[in-house]
């Protein structure tokens, strides 16, 4: 076959149709036959077969490439649709979104300018407006789709930084170049302001906040952790204290980041209290709802009360809207703040295009060429509707509440907090002496249980550290996961932990002697 027969165009539509049908058939068969979330393969086992492939020797046909893919990817992939995948914030995906994905990559619109995307630009804008309405933002709201929560948080903090710098200059009477002594201007240059900037966020917030601070030229030290209560929610009194201290010591708080759904605990910071403190201090409030955004369409919408008072919000549709990666957005209450990422290029989005009101999404994004990820959410809403998504999310939250009761009633386990969303942090807690040896052994038993479970492929759970000790974590995002699945996985964990303890406990060694 000639290379040109692989270009998708009017003459190859039939080739396209058959190729995709093969691929879809392959994946469908795989998904129908998956009996575990994972095969347990190790990198060392898998790497040689991938290294051995000669990338300069093509296989020519899609079937042959799919056959090969079976052994290097499909056979051993981690399958999030399996009810015993309980590890990270990865959701099973809804079929209308997968359909959208196939359409968007074939048409391949690029959402930077109208002349590369036409209708796609308007569809994305409609979805941003829809999300903003769900948040409760007014008519001045806007936003943009991004690659994920990390990028959404980065962009929100970039806007917060530049707005704060502008306000600092304005407060000092420096509004433009005219009439300002050179040394005064220098004093208020961005480079002078940056070292004073601080970001306040709870100690349970996502590490992408620190990454963003580094990328924004502040350094990770600019992020000051605000203590949480037992429930892993930011303590407003602690935030108030930190705001007052910054004020006293001449540090400029450029943003308070509240988390609506922490990655480990699913805890939602007290948004109304935080909003009140931000408004009083004149500080930008960002809400990281990467995980909790599904509440926007759930019967638990009230858990997000106060989110409409934020200046910016991160939502990850690829977490709680059952969308394929990537699908995320950053929303702002005041669209004017997006001007901090607006640059004009003569070849792409000249200022005269803006004057003619031609919609150019690149003016609002930190990306240039950008996927039409919005189409997946569009297809989802058009087929299932928002309530359909909300029902799925509500179901996993209900399941987490039941699983919490199960764990609470089981003496072998300790669970950290009652979930607000769908995560559970717990550990196997054997009856061991209450000393450092006992604690270390408990840590090892839990670490071992997680690894052994992963190696078996029977189920996948996550792990985290709480107050220096190793815990396990369930992140429930699959409505197909039953309470029986959860009970069965707990038995597997207990079994692996016990096995480790009987091999390593000083007590059992003594008995064996
Ligand atoms: C997952 C997550 C992020 C990062 O989002 P990505 O889409 O993985 O980049 C940020 N914040 C919170 C609270 C998250 O759970």
Automatic annotation (TrEMBL):
Under the heading CDD domains, the entry gives:
DOPA_deC_like
Q: Which domain of life is it from?
A: Bacteria
Print the keywords alphabetically: Decarboxylase, Lyase, Pyridoxal phosphate
Task: Identify the Pfam families for this entry.
Answer: Pyridoxal_deC
Needed cofactors: pyridoxal 5'-phosphate
Record bears the keyword Lyase: yes
- In its keyword annotation, does this UniProt entry include Lyase? yes
> What's the family?
Belongs to the group II decarboxylase family.
Record-given protein name:
Lysine decarboxylase DesA
The gene for this chain is desA
